[in-house]
What we know:
Two copies of one chain form a homodimer.
Chain A: E1 12-17, H1 21-32, E2 37-40, E3 55-56, H2 67-91, E4 102-106, H3 109-124, E5 130-132, H4 134-140, E6 150-154, E7 158-159, H5 162-176, E8 179-181, E9 185-190, E10 195-200, E11 205-213, E12 234-244, E13 256-261, E14 264-270, E15 275-279, H6 293-306, E16 315-325, E17 332-335, E18 341-345, H7 355-368, H8 387-392
Parallel strand pairs in A: 1-2, 1-11, 2-8, 4-13, 11-18
Antiparallel strand pairs in A: 3-7, 4-6, 5-6, 9-10, 10-11, 12-15, 12-16, 13-14, 14-15, 17-18
Amino acid sequence: MRSSRNGPGNGSDVLVVGGGIIGLVTAWRATQRGLDVVLVDPEPGGGAAQVAAGMLAAVTELHYGEQTLLALNVESARRYPAFAAELGEASGLDTGYRACGTLAVALDSDDRAHLRELHALQVRCGLESEWLSGRDCRRLEPMLAPGARGGLRVDGDHQIDPRRLAKALVAACTRAGVRFTHGWAERLSVVRERAAGVVLADGTALAADQVVLAAGSLSGRLAGVPAELLPPVRPVKGQVLRLSVPSAYAPFLSRTVRALVRGSDVYLVPRENGELVVGATSEELGWDTTVTAGGVYQLLRDAHELVPGITELPLTETRAGLRPASPDNAPLLGPTALPGLLLATGHYRNGVLLTPVTGDVMAHVLATGELPDEARPFTPRRFTSAPRELTTA
Amino acid sequence: MRSSRNGPGNGSDVLVVGGGIIGLVTAWRATQRGLDVVLVDPEPGGGAAQVAAGMLAAVTELHYGEQTLLALNVESARRYPAFAAELGEASGLDTGYRACGTLAVALDSDDRAHLRELHALQVRCGLESEWLSGRDCRRLEPMLAPGARGGLRVDGDHQIDPRRLAKALVAACTRAGVRFTHGWAERLSVVRERAAGVVLADGTALAADQVVLAAGSLSGRLAGVPAELLPPVRPVKGQVLRLSVPSAYAPFLSRTVRALVRGSDVYLVPRENGELVVGATSEELGWDTTVTAGGVYQLLRDAHELVPGITELPLTETRAGLRPASPDNAPLLGPTALPGLLLATGHYRNGVLLTPVTGDVMAHVLATGELPDEARPFTPRRFTSAPRELTTA
């Protein structure tokens, strides 16, 4: 079923704009379906995954009113072990997937009330989550602050190293035959009211039967996309620190430890190689990716309150990235009202978690034209203003 | 008076071990006296000056019991304008010398009592320092925390950019004819009870009439130096942050602003190019130069307490260096009991401040054999245990 265009020609079955983990997994899975795929990105494997902590926190990141998203998150978490194993095999690289579980901690009585409510919601949603006393939290993680007032033990919320994930996806794509074009996609080509490819910043035109816009927070900026179809994604800045646990202190933490401190999420994600990721701020500042004194201060202050012993650890990196947020915090997956143009963007805080299901969903719709059931609620058409579209959806 | 060894030969009048600012200024000034100088360092211009903030704080850093050191500090501060001008001329480079003054602030009543005592001591020592109310402090520096309880305005404590200073000294040395040998000095050669040169790590032997040990905190580690003459210097770690003031916020601060916060010194040194240096921790941890979560946290917390608006500023660099501390916090300058071996080390917190006077003193003693009056109290012989030496000194 591979297109006859495969080979020296310019055209392809599928053109993916964006080489972050979402674009890469889309390209990889589509190629596995026999489609001929070109991926356009100046630096494939870059993007927000270079900054993200890699929590797979379907259960601990549950929010009121996001039960629809929860189903997709839980489904993607369920697919993760097999996905990581298959990707490891296909790429020959370790993805850093670690089934370590998560402990969400309350540091004062307000936090405790908040976590109690979250726990009740988790139970109502049928999720596995165990309430622990402060003493039991500290028994599980001895480095925790003595003041911990209780917490939630979520043994199903794991982690992966997003940098390794991105690298493995690039390798798997390469081995599978995805063709990489290093450049900036500047404009969507529309021919007879159908997406027909893109034009790069250097003027090169690339033709394709289907175009997937998977450019993270930049997805709303591709010229040539009809204004009403531009995905409503905006960048939400996150500053993240990387610490290092010297072997003398190991194991410093044995699972992801997180808390809400004065209204800000802070989490510590311990990797097996000794890296300890501390994240993340959440700032609506447009395209700014500056690491600020205040961002680093807030993270160190909150992490120190949660795990005082971090003060001894080397601080090895400070960095900021941009989460692609949508109006309802859920991704935009699948066809748009413009034939040939599909979206895979708006994953916000859940890009790493949703990578497996996004790959499956996008490959399915690219190969068959049908959006799988689990992805129906995430059609981009939910944001288009045309009333007829909404009523017929 | 230049030695006949100048030229293709190996020997020199003077061999300086260490290419930090102290070694460089010694080499430059000695060359100006007509001496033929070789300087040995793997990377001249490196060392603690790459980390230091560059405060020239003779008056604000006055401590009880250090009035002898005060005289040397004040003398070096007095020489700084002419020194910076001459060095700028000789090197063709800007040293970043800035006559901006300093404001030392009290944030609570304990700080206030402490600053009041410092002010009284300064006045007794005949130094210029003016007591200001909290309101007057904020009038001078509007970014100061509203809680400032008073402060000392010291218009004579200026700053220089130590990285530019080091670069200018390398250039001035090169232009003056100092010969650089890039390598590690491993062992002092002693011939007939006289220092005669050094042997490098690669086995190269360098001969010289006089050897100056100016290797900062490493000065106590040169093999071949008789044990009782090894300078008693130890490394004191300092972590320092560099922030950047975007033009929209400028002028953020117009002078150095400092405070004692919970027993730790914190200072903010604003450069004309928009760099804002925040320092420094003080840690006795041997040779460790790791940037730690705790060090960065302490600096940001204290700086934030002093100038809350720093949170908006980009954090551009975190780094740690080692101050060469001596038992009495004062430098070791001049001849040792081993003929031909001189010291210029142990400058601790005052290396940048003491650069001009150190250059003058060392060049004088190298050229004439006599330690100038202002340097007599800083002879290395004050730490040697031989009682006869002490009584005849």
